[in-house]
Task: structure prediction
Amino acid sequence: MKAQLVTPAAITQPTPEELRLSGDWTARGLGAIGSQLAALSVSGRSTARVLDSARIEALDTAGAWVLQKLLRRLRGEGGCVQVRDLRPEFARLLDLVGHELSKQAASPSPVVPSSSARLEQMGRRAAAAGGQALALLGFIGEIATAFAGCLRHPTRIRWLPILHNLRRAGLDALPIVGLLSFLLGIVIAYQGAGQLRQYGANIFVVDLVGLSVLREFAPLITAIIIAGRSGSAYAAQIGTMSVTEEIEALRTLGIGPLDLLVLPKIVALCVALPLLTVFADVSGVFGGMIMARAQLGVGFGEFLDRFVKAVSLADYLVGIGKTPVFAIIIVVVGCFQGFRTHGGADGVGRQTTRSVVQSTFLVIVADALFSVAFSALDL
Result:
């Protein structure tokens, strides 16, 4: 198959008032037309100009766009411009491109928000955040009311969902919690080994690993893992039920959604998260023991002897005591965002993302507040 020959587009000026166009005014033939247009000399004293288009052999939208730009340039310098001997099909294409350019020129430019508009936008966001906070407080009140009702009528407690959630949030999370806590203990011991070795204080790696893991890192990393793993699952489950109107179906049947969907999750996670934290404590300390032996020559026996002296029962209970609060935050935020889901699959994904972000943020804030409170109480 032979390649089609292309005649380059060209423009000449035989007289000051006439421009002669020739060649293929297409995307392939416009290579040198830019320099010719730049070197074009148009007399400002002329009141009429003619574009002789009889020698144009081909025209596409790219060429029509260049021609329209040329026409606008000439008309902008004064006078009228006449396109002569242009084929009818080329003239229709030229008019179509000119119409589109006119529409683009007539469309309003993007409005840059003013300072007042920015302030208004900030105010709307603040109002939305405040409304969401009030809705969350109302949701917490509903949960408290439902929990009080279950205490008054123990037969309303649903033990099977509690056991199911205990297995899903607790037993199934053991591998990921154990692995990350083990690696965290290794990292803590490895990072401290270099500094402790310089001062001959190798044995104090036990204090570093024990206190940091038991008081801070194990509870916090466990809560963050569960927030991403189970909190997102709570939001997605309830969000899907909201979208498919299963929540309304439960109310129609006389079943309280909070009794069935929220309270079992709170009870299960308040039991599972402290146990997972204990497992994370053991895994993190074990990882620190391995790294202390490898990097600092501190044997397992020496490590354990120092550990019982460096870490008190209060340090252990401080870490465990945070976890029920973390569990309540994760469940409440995840279920709250699930009940606020509307729309379709996009709404489920959006609320699930919000639940993970908000629960993780609130867990870290709560941990910081616990640190301040324990410091004030000298714990």
Observations:
- The radius of gyration is 37 Å.
- The first helix runs from residue 33 to 38.
- DSSP finds twelve helices and four strands in the chain.
